[in-house]
Amino acid sequence: MKNLYKIVDVKNLLFVFDIENTFDLERERLIVEKNINDPRQLTELFDALLKPEFYEYTDAEQESLIDTVDHFLKEDDDFDRVFNRMTTYFDDEVTDRPSFMRTLLGCLKKYRSEKNSGY
């Protein structure tokens, strides 16, 4: 059976960074302070805001998200369907979207591994 990958799942995961999300000055400040084009700072941002969100997903949903991001990276997707439909708190434009997504994928895999090992 072939998996059906939906880019909207990635967009939904990144909703935590969207202006349409609940108004939260602390979250907004944290997002704006980070250089989202620097993988280290982006990882710090993901760890602070995305990790708790990711842990709310079921195991199957977490695996599906990891597989979905991986699939679109392997397809050389430009991720326009994610970023062009979001208005974020990011202070800068994401200059290298595949790099952003590779950082995201690495973080999701790390979170999944931590969860499985009990951290």
TrEMBL record:
It comes from Pseudomonas tensinigenes. This is CdiI immunity protein domain-containing protein.
